[in-house]
UniProtKB/TrEMBL annotation:
This is Small ribosomal subunit biogenesis GTPase RsgA. It is found in: Cytoplasm. Belongs to the TRAFAC class YlqF/YawG GTPase family. RsgA subfamily. One of several proteins that assist in the late maturation steps of the functional core of the 30S ribosomal subunit. Helps release RbfA from mature subunits. May play a role in the assembly of ribosomal proteins into the subunit. Circularly permuted GTPase that catalyzes slow GTP hydrolysis, GTPase activity is stimulated by the 30S ribosomal subunit. Gene3D superfamilies: P-loop containing nucleotide triphosphate hydrolases. The lineage of its organism: Bacteria, Bacillati, Actinomycetota, Actinomycetes, Actinomycetales. The gene is rsgA.
Length: 352
């Protein structure tokens, strides 16, 4: 039986509009009136954004961002309810270009290993190690320095628990290669009660106790900077944060007597206001710090004193232990640093 043409005037017939009747536009909203702010915490798809010293806004990503990831330290634009009152949500509609990105790799055994972005827009990295309990690991320090310099971030070294061991060789070795080192005796700041002088930018967080001069020097170094803390669990990062930022109330833990390792007390990165226009980003303790995202040339630049010497090496020198005529071998005073460099060199993608 043939189909009967009942015509388009029949009310029972619905005629679909042509697919090409409306050209698709490439215009997108400009979000010119978005409220700027910095992401200070991330928790399961919810973002805490500081839009002023005293206003923290809860927000979610808008669909306009697509698959772009947002991490602590990012500068974003907000629309919606930006009052910061409880049970309100704003939308993150723009993501500013990052000036720096700190990252680490999960596996150094292959090129293209999965990476984790740590923080955005940091200007300093505070590498925290303990003089003892747990023992300082030069390998971790060197990895962190390489990662910082690769991201154009200034590395600093803090040695805690110097009341247990002064570790003069460790301090001297890193000062000799241009790393600023802060040695902190925990007895000077763990039990002190902070005196709350007025702070113009961030009233809830006063300066540290004036009786801790070592802490005062470090506190001054953090002014006007975005500083990320990095270190193994148990080295005293949370205790240090609580001393630098009274009112932070970061949980602290003990070191396991059997394994010599600490347990995680910080479970996610969080940015805390410190002093005048400064931010201190506390991160969870790291068990490993992969460098698969850094090639061999970038690794060498992380060892600044070796890099300077390498400029006179034969063309194409790989700087490995079996490299002929490598000038790095002619400096026995740098033996520890050279051994560390070559150990890492065997784990990162080659650029030579």
């Amino acid at each position: 039986m043939s189909r009967r043409d009942i015509g388009t005037d029949d009310p029972r017939v619905h005629v679909r509009p042509g697919k090409g009747s409306r050209p698709r536009t490439k215009k997108r909203p400009s979000f010119a009136h978005a409220v700027p702010g910095m992401v200070v915490a991330v928790d399961r798809g919810r973002f805490t954004v500081a839009i002023s010293a005293n206003c923290m806004v809860q927000a979610v990503k808008a669909r306009a961002l697509g698959r772009k990831g947002v991490i602590v330290g990012d500068w974003v634009g907000l629309e919606g309810d930006t009052s910061g009152t409880p049970d309100t949500l704003a939308r993150i509609v723009t993501l500013e270009e990052r000036q720096t990105v700190l990252r680490r790799s999960f596996d150094e055994s292959e090129v293209g290993a999965r990476e984790k972005l740590i923080v955005a827009n940091a200007t300093q990295m505070l590498i925290v190690v303990a003089a003892r309990d747990p023992e300082p690991k030069r390998g971790m320090i060197d990895r962190a320095i390489v990662s910082a310099l690769d991201a154009r971030v200034t590395p600093l070294l803090v040695v805690t628990k110097t009341d247990l061991d002064s570790v003069p060789e460790l301090i001297a070795d890193y000062e000799a290669v241009g790393i600023k080192v802060f040695a902190l005796n925990r007895n000077l700041y763990e039990a002190t009660a902070p005196v709350p002088p007025p702070v113009e930018t961030h009233p809830p967080h006063p300066a540290p106790h004036p009786c801790a001069p070592q802490l005062q020097e470090l506190h001054q170094q953090l002014q006007g900077e975005v500083t990320v803390l990095l270190g193994h669990s148990g080295v005293g990062k949370s205790t240090l944060v609580n001393a630098l930022v009274p009112g932070a109330n970061r949980a602290t833990g003990e070191v396991n007597e059997v394994t010599g390792k600490g347990r995680h007390t910080s479970t996610s990165a969080v940015a805390l206001p410190i002093g005048s226009q400064g931010w201190l980003i506390d991160t969870p303790g790291v068990r490993s710090f992969g460098l698969a995202h850094v090639d061999a040339a970038g690794l060498l630049r992380g060892f600044t004193e070796l890099y300077a010497i390498s400029q006179d090496c034969p063309r194409g020198c790989a700087h490995a232990a079996d490299a002929p005529d490598c000038l790095l071998d002619e400096h026995p005073e740098l033996a520890l640093r050279l051994a560390s460099f070559r150990s890492l060199l065997s784990e990162v993608p080659s650029a030579y």
